[in-house]
Specification:
Elements: E1 5-12, E2 17-24, E3 28-34, E4 38-44, H1 49-63, H2 80-89, H3 97-107, E5 112-117
Antiparallel strand pairs: 1-2, 2-3, 3-4, 4-5
Helix pairs in contact: 1-2
């Protein structure tokens, strides 16, 4: 299921802030929210990626499909998880990191949360 890659979910210019997701078949999924001074991470280990993908698909189904993928979730490339994250939480006017954390918790997907830098 997992192929390596990354996607930007949110970016603001002033103040600078970035939320991106990186997928690696060996280390799993890392969603990072931060600026030049501090970063917050959500990590999902490789063995939990199928549960994450299923939960993201189910959420899209409840919300009425996929606008970017025009409702087709059947023939996605290997980095399906990144596309599902983008569909569910990308292209917003505000930082989606807390919404992603809440979603992972509510969906029961095992994840780790870290913080580095000054607050």
């Amino acid at each position: 299921m997992a192929d390596s890659g990354s996607v930007v979910l949110y970016r603001s210019g002033r103040p600078y802030w970035l939320v991106d997701a990186k997928l690696d078949p060996e280390t799993g999924l890392a969603v990072c929210s931060g600026d030049n001074n501090a970063e917050w991470y959500l990590r999902v280990m490789p063995e939990n990626l199928p549960a994450m993908a299923t939960a993201l698909r189910d959420r899209l189904d409840r919300l009425g499909g996929s606008p970017i993928l025009h409702g087709t979730l059947h023939d996605l490339p290997d980095n399906e998880l990144l596309l599902l994250l983008l569909e569910n939480f990308g292209n917003r006017d505000s930082n989606p990191f807390d919404a992603i954390k809440a979603f992972v918790s509510e969906a029961g997907v095992p994840a780790e949360f870290d913080h580095f830098g000054s607050m």
